[in-house]
C-alpha cells in the first residue's frame, strides 16, 4: 500500500482518481488549481476533481503554485510515497517531485513522445491521426518528458469529437495508472521504463480562440477534423462575405463532409441541398447543417437560408488566420521541439 497525494483539476483525471479512492492505496489529499473568479467577482463552481475529493471527505488544497515554500510545507506534512498527477495545470519542479519518496507519475492524453503539452487530444484529431492513446510517465521537471511506464492505444473514430475522445481516453487511462503504481511499489524509485525518443517529440500547444477560424482553402476532410478537434472550445466559425454589408460571423455548430468533384472556388456556396449549405473547399465540400449568427441563437441551416437570403455563388471567408505566427504547428504531426 502506498500513501498517495493526487494532483488534478479537470475531468480527464476523474476516472483514475475514483479508482484510486477505491483501491488498497491510501489517498491522502488532493491538490488542484485555485478556483476561477467570474465576472462580478463570483467564484466558478468547484473543479471536477475538487468535487470528487469533497464528496470523499478528502483534504483539498489549491496553491497558486505547487512550487512555492508554502505548498512544499503542505506536501511535507503528508509524507507521501507518490504523487499521482493528471490534468493538473501546473508543472512540478525537481524540488516538488522530491517531496514524495517515489516522485510522481503523470497520465497524459497522447502516445508520448508525440503531443507533449496542453492540448494533445485536440491536435491528434486535428492532424487526422488514425489512432491515439494515453501514456503514464515517471515524472521529471521537463514537461511530459519522463520515462514511459505504461501506454494504451485506441483508434480515433471518424465522427467523434474531442469531447467524446477525451472521455474515452480518461477511461482508458485508469488501468495504466494502476499498473504504473504497482511498478513503483515493486521496484522503488527506479522502475523499469522506456526513455522517450527525443527525435520523435512533437508539441501540442494550448488552443487559442483564433484556431476556430475555418480555412476553406484546405480539404473537406481537414476542415471536418478541425471542427471535431476544437470542441467545445474554441469551436469553429467563418464569415459570410455579404455584398454591400459588413461580413457576418457565423459559429458552425454542425457540419458534414460531402464528396464532390465540382469546380467551385474554396469558400463559395456551391449549392443548397435538403436545407443544407454546401460549401466548396480545396477538395470535396462541407455541408453546413447548424449555425449561429453573431448575437443570435443557434438555428438549422434551412432557417438561416430563409431568414438571411444567402444563396449559391456567395462566399464564406477567413479574417482571423487559423494558425498565424511562429507558434503555428504544421498539419502533421505537430511542431517539433
UniProtKB/TrEMBL annotation:
GO CC annotation, single: cytosol
Enzyme class: transferase
Family (UniProt): Belongs to the Fmt family.
Domain Formyl transferase C-terminal: 206-308
Hydrolase recorded as keyword: no
HAMAP family registered for this protein in UniProt: Formyl_trans
Function: Attaches a formyl group to the free amino group of methionyl-tRNA(fMet). The formyl group appears to play a dual role in the initiator identity of N-formylmethionyl-tRNA by promoting its recognition by IF2 and preventing the misappropriation of this tRNA by the elongation apparatus.
Catalyses which reaction(s): L-methionyl-tRNA(fMet) + (6R)-10-formyltetrahydrofolate = N-formyl-L-methionyl-tRNA(fMet) + (6S)-5,6,7,8-tetrahydrofolate + H(+)
Entry's EC annotation: 2.1.2.9
Sites where the protein binds (6S)-5,6,7,8-tetrahydrofolate: 110-113
Top-level division of the source organism's lineage: Bacteria
Keyword line: Protein biosynthesis, Transferase
Ranges of residues in domain Formyl transferase N-terminal: 3-174
Protein name: Methionyl-tRNA formyltransferase
InterPro entries found in the cross-reference section: Fmt, Formyl_trans_C, Formyl_transf_N, Formyl_transf_N_sf, Formyl_transferase-like_C_sf, Met-tRNA-FMT_C, Met-tRNA-FMT_N
Lineage: Bacteria, Pseudomonadati, Planctomycetota, Planctomycetia, Pirellulales
GO molecular function: methionyl-tRNA formyltransferase activity
Amino acid at each position: 500500500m502506498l500513501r498517495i497525494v493526487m494532483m488534478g483539476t479537470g475531468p480527464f483525471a476523474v476516472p483514475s482518481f475514483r479508482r484510486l479512492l477505491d483501491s488498497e492505496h491510501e489517498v491522502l489529499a488532493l491538490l488542484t488549481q485555485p478556483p476561477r473568479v467570474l465576472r462580478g467577482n463570483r467564484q466558478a463552481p468547484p473543479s471536477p476533481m475538487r468535487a470528487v475529493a469533497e464528496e470523499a471527505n478528502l483534504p483539498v488544497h489549491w496553491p497558486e503554485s505547487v512550487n512555492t515554500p508554502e505548498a512544499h510545507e503542505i506536501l511535507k506534512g503528508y509524507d507521501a510515497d507518490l504523487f499521482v498527477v493528471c490534468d493538473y495545470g501546473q508543472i512540478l519542479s525537481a524540488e516538488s517531485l522530491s517531496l514524495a519518496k517515489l516522485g510522481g507519475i503523470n497520465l497524459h492524453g497522447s502516445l508520448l513522445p508525440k503531443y507533449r503539452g496542453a492540448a494533445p487530444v485536440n491536435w491528434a484529431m486535428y492532424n487526422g491521426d488514425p489512432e491515439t492513446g494515453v501514456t503514464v510517465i515517471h515524472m521529471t521537471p521537463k514537461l511530459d518528458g519522463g520515462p514511459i511506464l505504461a501506454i494504451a492505444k485506441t483508434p480515433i473514430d471518424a465522427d467523434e469529437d474531442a469531447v467524446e475522445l477525451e472521455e474515452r481516453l480518461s477511461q482508458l487511462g485508469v488501468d495504466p495508472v494502476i499498473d504504473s503504481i504497482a511498478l513503483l511499489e515493486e521496484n522503488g524509485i527506479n522502475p523499469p521504463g522506456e526513455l522517450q525518443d527525443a527525435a520523435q517529440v512533437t508539441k501540442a500547444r494550448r488552443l487559442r480562440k483564433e484556431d476556430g477560424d475555418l480555412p476553406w482553402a484546405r480539404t473537406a476532410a481537414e476542415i471536418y477534423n478541425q471542427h471535431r478537434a476544437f470542441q467545445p472550445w474554441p469551436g469553429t466559425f467563418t464569415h459570410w462575405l455579404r455584398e454591400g454589408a459588413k461580413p457576418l460571423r457565423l459559429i458552425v455548430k454542425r457540419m458534414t463532409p460531402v464528396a464532390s468533384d465540382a469546380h467551385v472556388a474554396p469558400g463559395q456556396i456551391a449549392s443548397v441541398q435538403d436545407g443544407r449549405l454546401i460549401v466548396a473547399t480545396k477538395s470535396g465540400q462541407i455541408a453546413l447543417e447548424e449555425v449561429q449568427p453573431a448575437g443570435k441563437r443557434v438555428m438549422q441551416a434551412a432557417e438561416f437560408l430563409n431568414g438571411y437570403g444567402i444563396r449559391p455563388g456567395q462566399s464564406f471567408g477567413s479574417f482571423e488566420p487559423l494558425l498565424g505566427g511562429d507558434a503555428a504547428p504544421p498539419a502533421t504531426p505537430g511542431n517539433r521541439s
